Amino acid sequence: MTTNAGIVIVGGGLAAARTAEQLRRAEFDGPITIVSDEEHLPYDRPPLSKDVLRGELDDVLLKPAEFYEEKNITLRLGSGATALDTEAQTITLADGDVLPYDELVIATGLVPKRIPSLPDLEGVRVLRTLDESLAMREHAGSVQRAVVIGAGFIGCEVAASLRKLGVAVTIVEPQPAPLASVLGRRIGDLVARLHRAEGVDVRVGVGVSGVSGSGHVEKVQLADGTELDADLVVIGIGSRPNTDWLAGSGVEVDNGVVCDVHGRTSAKNVWAIGDVASWQDASGHQVRVEHWSNVAEQARVIVPALLGGDPPDVVVVPYFWSDQYDVKIQCLGEPEADDVVHVVEDDGRKFLAYYERDGVVVGVVGGGMPGKVMKARSKIAAGAAIADLL
Ligand SMILES: Cc1cc2nc3c(=O)[nH]c(=O)nc-3n(C[C@H](O)[C@H](O)[C@H](O)COP(=O)(O)OP(=O)(O)OC[C@H]3O[C@@H](n4cnc5c(N)ncnc54)[C@H](O)[C@@H]3O)c2cc1C
């Protein structure tokens, strides 16, 4: 620490909250400031496409306001960082304020991708923020037909929630199956089956070529010439790291903020965590993870490193989940789309599959099989032979 500016965390989501929390737990007693462009206190995003959208949950705050007061964590909400000067060690905010830092943590998450060729019509939405979820929920109350563009996790969850609200839903996905780029075709087909059983019209292998309507969206055109009626269109085609504000700062960005194994960026006293950060893994590859559990794992590493201590040496088995209808899809390990997939259980709705690479189990994916997924953790961590599990 060179001044008493303390630690400034840019971003108001899970990564920011976990970092601040972990810093106080590590008994750092200097100033901590969280800077967010959102007006809300840091909140949890997974419920946005699930319970919040279905109207079953309103309070998604990660911590109540009192937590930040008790822990003496300053919140600068509603005015994001627009520039970073790594020489002067300052950030500039949208309201013109300039904040100095001793250490800076970048935790600015992702921005949903849109389709630039589509006209700007009302009723065409993306989902990343609480405000977007609440607006979609309100809109869904008067919607008859929705088209979800993209069958990734968020698209699939939104489709499931909209079905529960009684909306007729079509999913349009250019790949051969939902989630195919992440989990491969075999599991993607099981996910498509789940949605079809719930009445979703799942159209794969075809993209969207346009949307039309007068002011509000009315029709969606597909590349195969089909036209669908729609009064709500949800674009779920993925997100990009929120790094525009770092332009000219000298912080290296390449599919996210490039970090070493402890979250240290290319600039002095600047760190990055969460969905925006591409951390080096143990084998030297840069990996950017967009899942909830990863944030807490990274916070446990970045905080001791930032405070000059030794980060713990833990073997992390990556994990994420996705809730679609009554089926919790869970993934442990690092499965890839082109691994050999062994579906070992399938009752027509729920399933369990092991992923094999070079004879070794690298991941497990279950749909509605929580106990069995977790049982595979030690085998995956140990790099066990697939034969041990079959
Ligand atoms: C709808 C939805 C559902 C999800 N469901 C699951 C799930 O079921 N399972 C799972 O494992 N993961 C899920 N995730 C992913 C998980 O929520 C993320 O991994 C997690 O939120 C990442 O936290 P983060 O703090 O890195 O980013 P974010 O939560 O995106 O937070 C970034 C924050 O930074 C703010 N910000 C951006 N730019 C600036 C700036 N220049 N200045 C100041 N502030 C800025 C943003 O407004 C935002 O508040 C879901 C994500 C979404 C969006």
From TrEMBL:
Q: Which organism is it from?
A: Mycolicibacterium arenosum
**What cofactor does this protein call for?**
FAD
Q: Where is the FAD/NAD(P)-binding domain?
A: 7-299
Q: Which domain of life is it from?
A: Bacteria
**Mind telling me what this protein is named?**
FAD-dependent oxidoreductase
Instruction: Say if the entry is tagged with keyword Oxidoreductase.
Output: yes
Task: Show the InterPro entries listed in the entry.
Answer: FAD-oxidoreductase/Apoptosis, FAD/NAD-bd_sf, FAD/NAD-binding_dom, FAD/NAD-linked_Rdtase_dimer_sf, Reductase_C
Specify the Reductase C-terminal domain's residue ranges: 319-386
Tell me the keywords, alphabetical order: FAD, Flavoprotein, Oxidoreductase
- Signal sequence region: none
